[in-house]
Amino acid sequence: MYKYRQQLEYIKASARRELESNIKQFKSAIVRELTYIYKNENIKDLEELKRVLRKQFQVPPAEYKIIDQIVSESQAQISGIWDEYFQKLGIDYESVKAAQAVQFHQLRQDHLAAVESALDNAIRRGMDYKEFRADLIKQNVAASNATTLANTAIAQFDSAYMHEVCEQAGIEKFLYDGMPAQRPFCQQHLGHVYTTDEILAMDNGQGLDVLTSLGGYNCVHFWTPIID
User: Fold this and answer.
1) What pTM was estimated for this model as a whole?
2) Which helix (H) or strand (E) segment is 78 a member of?
3) Of 2, 11, 195, 219, which is least packed with CB atoms within 10 Å of its CB?
4) With left for phi above 0 and alpha for psi between -120 and 50, is residue 214 left, alpha or beta?
5) Domain boundaries, the chain
6) Among 129, 225, 113, which Cα is nearest to 176's?
7) Per-residue pLDDT tens for 134-164?
8) Residue 177 bridge partners (DSSP)
9) Using N-to-C axis directions, what is the helix angle for 129-138 and 23-40, rounded to 10°?
10) What region, left, alpha or beta, does residue 44 occupy, with left being phi > 0 and alpha being psi -120 to 50 degrees?
């Protein structure tokens, strides 16, 4: 299992690096979206921009395309690693459908919250749109939220795919595995073995399924199946 886990973690690390390398492009896409709204709606000031923003703002298509491609390619590679692992064990299973999509509705809300916060600050400082835009370009503009959600979707797929195959094979025990933990939830469970039912009863406090997300957003831990 160790060799396969190394390959899986390498795929996830590569995806993280690729997402991070696109942070500037994500940020530029958000700024372009705001500028389009500002000009297209003939907005006069930042107060008015804030009023129309919630109805008009979307995840920029350029950002969507990059994230979707990175996540899809990573998931395809991960499924290939798990297929090789389970096939070598001689485990028979039907086609698995464990795809985890990036929550773009959540990404939109995260971006909106960050932009609205920046708008509030700009309004307090008496900025016009040109000044606000220049200030926004210097900031992160919630671009890191894109990498968080994408990384989480990739990790969720890794776990979901494995659990679906294990369910078909009757494997019901899993080790909470990975590097030393920082989060209290992960510290509590790291190194312990749990059944599927026990995992389903857990709550990581982040509203995410522990079966697929373990400690939550950006969690670097994983479930290792215990195979007799």
Assistant:
1) 0.84
2) helix 61-88
3) 2
4) left
5) 2-169, 171-228
6) 225
7) 888 888 776 677 888 899 999 999 999 999 9
8) 222
9) 170
10) alpha
